[in-house]
Amino acid sequence: MTVYGIDPALMDPVVLDYRGEPPADNRFIHLHRPMSMVQRADLPAALHWVLMDVNLAPQVALITARRLAARPRHALHGVLLTLKLDDWRAVRHIPRLLASISAMGMEEVKATQLPSNRMELFVCGLTRAGRQRLTGD
User: Fold this and answer.
1) pLDDT digits (tens, 9 = 90+) for 33-90
2) CA dist 85 to 43, 59, 129, Å?
3) pTM given for the model
4) Chain-centre distance of CA 77, in angstroms?
5) How many angstroms separate the CA atoms of 75 and 53, rounded?
6) How distant, in Å, are the alpha carbons of 7, 10, 43, 98, 101 from that of 71?
7) How many Å apart are CA 44 and CA 82, to the nearest integer?
């Protein structure tokens, strides 16, 4: 598989040089810029998964996740997102955040609190194609 990593920081050479075991065609492509600077032309025509773990407010992170998940949506299998909560008052926004993820075309959305610092949610959203791929139906 090909993984596109979006990060303005430098990547470890081990990550940049990853090719997997022969004859695998695995590779990592580093888009060395902030997410907001990534254009549609920087990404492949079809994205199957969007994985995101950023230190941004959930509402800001979801703007980018929505933009990436829309390219093109029929190929998308799902999203795996870590959302950082600013403080405990942000808990009241969780239903709205999950509804926003569902609106990306996800048929199934599940969330769980991450135990490491208790201020993060992990959200898995699956499209119909993603559910079919996982279940074989």
Assistant:
1) 998 898 888 988 888 999 999 988 888 889 988 888 887 778 899 999 999 988 878 8
2) 28, 10, 30
3) 0.86
4) 11
5) 22
6) 19, 26, 9, 20, 15
7) 23
